[in-house]
């Protein structure tokens, strides 16, 4: 089985998938701190299948961008489970997981898919895909720049825009200038998509990401930077 988690937003998402990446069971919880709910969610899903961590053959984790604290908790949990079980670890873009979920919901593959997550501090994270292929780097911007940022990519891609995600919903007045907001699509990254994307990598990358050095994708600098060691 594949165990997948995403903690990029205030919704903690966990899923178990079979070794082909097909979801078996999933769960999510709106949390104030992911450390309180993440492992209980994992235990609950495993128990529901009558399984244990011994049945997990790979661990997948949303790498962000997203909440700095949430990403650190999610990745620390995933790394700890990978170390304990010896299962390979796969990091997946949380914005890419939103795109995967939108495609699974039937959005046109030739559209410009723009997932938008709330970055706090009056900023949003944006991704840009045609089908499952990124066409521009993920970025962070102020809500006032959502429309102009999308317009630059859309003009180059010459495609209709599909805009969705919690960031677009929160800053609807600014985001709706770029395109109608698809409230019917997932607003936060589902762990089921994290699992499916990790499975796609396993065929060519059985070792996964190095557990010791795996790190979140912040895009902007973290709010808290550890002090540099003093030179001796």
Short description:
The chain has 232 residues and is of the alpha/beta class.
Structure report:
This protein has 232 residues and is an alpha/beta fold. It has helices spanning 34-48, 68-85, 94-104, 146-157, 166-170, 172-175, 191-202, and strands at 2-6, 11-17, 23-30, 58-64, 89-93, 112-120, 123-130, 133-141, 161-164. The protein folds into two domains: 2-94 and 188-202, ATPase, nucleotide binding domain (Nucleotidyltransferase, domain 5, 2-Layer Sandwich); 106-175, Nucleotidyltransferase, domain 5 (2-Layer Sandwich). The strands form two sheets. Strands 3-2-1-4-5 form a five-stranded mixed beta sheet, sandwiched between helices. A four-stranded mixed beta sheet has the order 8-7-6-9, with helices on both faces. Helix 1 (34-48) crosses helix 2 (68-85).
Keywords:
single chain; 232 residues; alpha/beta; Nucleotidyltransferase, domain 5; 2 domains; five-stranded mixed β-sheet; four-stranded mixed β-sheet; 7 helices; 27% strand; globular
Write the layout of secondary structure elements.
Blueprint: E1 2-6, E2 11-17, E3 23-30, H1 34-48, E4 58-64, H2 68-85, E5 89-93, H3 94-104, E6 112-120, E7 123-130, E8 133-141, H4 146-157, E9 161-164, H5 166-170, H6 172-175, H7 191-202
Parallel strand pairs: 1-4, 4-5, 6-9
Antiparallel strand pairs: 1-2, 2-3, 6-7, 7-8
Strand residue percentage = 25-35%
Structural class: alpha/beta
Query: CA-to-CA gap between the ends?
Result: 48 Å
Task: Please name the fourth-level CATH homologous superfamily of the largest domain.
Answer: ATPase, nucleotide binding domain
CATH classification, class level of the largest domain: Alpha Beta
Q: How many domains make up the coordinates?
A: 2
């Amino acid at each position: 089985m594949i165990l997948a988690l995403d903690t990029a937003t205030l919704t903690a998402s966990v899923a178990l998938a079979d070794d082909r990446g097909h979801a078996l069971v999933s769960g999510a919880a709106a949390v104030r701190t992911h450390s309180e709910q993440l492992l209980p969610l994992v235990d609950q899903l495993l128990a529901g299948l009558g399984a244990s961590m011994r049945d997990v053959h790979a661990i997948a984790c949303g790498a962000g961008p997203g909440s700095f604290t949430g990403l650190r908790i999610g990745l620390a949990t995933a790394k700890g489970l990978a170390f304990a079980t010896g299962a390979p670890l796969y990091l997946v873009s949380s914005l890419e997981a939103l795109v995967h979920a939108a495609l699974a919901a039937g959005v046109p593959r030739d559209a410009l898919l723009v997932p938008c997550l709330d970055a706090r501090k009056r900023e949003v994270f944006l991704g840009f895909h045609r089908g499952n292929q990124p066409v521009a780097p993920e970025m962070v911007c102020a809500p006032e720049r959502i429309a102009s940022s999308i317009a630059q990519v859309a003009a180059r891609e010459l495609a209709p825009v599909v805009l969705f995600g919690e960031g677009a919903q929160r800053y609807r007045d600014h985001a709706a200038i770029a395109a109608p907001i698809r409230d019917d699509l997932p607003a936060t990254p589902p762990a089921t998509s994290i699992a499916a994307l990790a499975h796609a990598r396993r065929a060519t990358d059985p070792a996964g990401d190095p557990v010791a050095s795996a790190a979140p994708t912040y895009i902007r600098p973290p709010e808290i930077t550890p002090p540099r060691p003093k030179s001796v």
